[in-house]
Amino acid sequence: FADKYLQDQHWVITAGPTREAIDPVRYISNYSSGKMGYAIAHAALRAGAKVTLISGPVNISAPRGCELIEVTSAEQMYQQALTYAPQGTTFIACAAVADYRVADIAKEKIKKDNEHMQLSLVKNQDIVADVAKLANKPFIVGFAAETQNIAHYARGKLKRKNLDLIAANDVAKAGQGFNSDDNALTLYSAFDEIEIPLANKQVIATKLVSLINQHYLAKSTK
Ligand code: PMT
């Protein structure tokens, strides 16, 4: 089955935002809708892969046939990703993980008694970078959401986090990136750079999945 070219692969994909609690009724998050990660899950399933989708809170349904692991915070996503990633052939970090969490989550709802208030934040662990430190690590693809100097920052993340590939998107442009139906990506490896022009995220995902597989096969036959 040429169309089932991922038949022997298991893809573990993170998607959506994370939520970092401030108090029982408030949180810090971002505009990720999960659409890009879910589209990749869908495309990988169609190509015959087994798919584990580790997802932050989103308003879309998971594609039929995937194993869905629902999480809320970056710490929860970290635990699940480090558990499932070693079982996979391929790990895709499409989630928009909060870089920081609140140092002390208030047990009760914070009252608006003061004119100014400050939140103290601490850095979250980097999920994809730590997956890349595993002895039995899969093939690893990160994303880079940038608003400027895209190629420079994306290549920096590729190297620093020790990834096989990084898919960079310009999230300053209207109509693509966070929460839109469309996207445009540049896929960087240590050796090449491939443009995937603006299109619906389903179309982007289909192309991206095939390109990732080509790089995966090239690496495993080296
Ligand atoms: O969900 P959508 O609305 O469809 O939007 C898609 C998207 C814009 C969120 C997606 O295409 C995207 O770019 N995802 C990555 C967003 C991001 O947080 O990028 P970053 O440049 O901050 O992070 C770089 C990489 O490190 C990413 O692979 C990220 O998943 C990973 N990371 C970051 C922080 C952290 N603590 N752990 C991580 O694994």
UniProtKB/TrEMBL annotation:
- Describe the reaction catalysed, as an equation: N-[(R)-4-phosphopantothenoyl]-L-cysteine + H(+) = (R)-4'-phosphopantetheine + CO2; (R)-4'-phosphopantothenate + L-cysteine + CTP = N-[(R)-4-phosphopantothenoyl]-L-cysteine + CMP + diphosphate + H(+)
State which Enzyme Commission number(s) the record gives.
Answer: 4.1.1.36, 6.3.2.5
Q: Does the keyword Metal-binding apply?
A: yes
Q: Where is this region: Phosphopantothenate--cysteine ligase?
A: 11-222
Which pathway does it operate in? Answer: Cofactor biosynthesis; coenzyme A biosynthesis; CoA from (R)-pantothenate: step 3/5; Cofactor biosynthesis; coenzyme A biosynthesis; CoA from (R)-pantothenate: step 2/5
The entry's free-text remark on the cofactor is: Binds 1 FMN per subunit.
Highest taxon listed in the record's lineage:
Bacteria
Query: Where does the DNA/pantothenate metabolism flavoprotein C-terminal domain lie?
Result: 6-214
- Keyword field: Decarboxylase, Flavoprotein, FMN, Ligase, Lyase, Magnesium, Metal-binding, Multifunctional enzyme
* Binding site residues for CTP: 99, 109, 143, 157, 161
Q: Which family does it belong to?
A: In the C-terminal section; belongs to the PPC synthetase family.
Query: Main role?
Result: Catalyzes two steps in the biosynthesis of coenzyme A. In the first step cysteine is conjugated to 4'-phosphopantothenate to form 4-phosphopantothenoylcysteine, in the latter compound is decarboxylated to form 4'-phosphopantotheine.
Name of the protein in question: Coenzyme A biosynthesis bifunctional protein CoaBC
Q: Which species does this protein come from?
A: Colwellia marinimaniae
Q: Which gene encodes it?
A: coaBC
Describe which stretch of the whole protein the shown chain covers, with first residue, last residue and complete length. 172 to 393 of 394
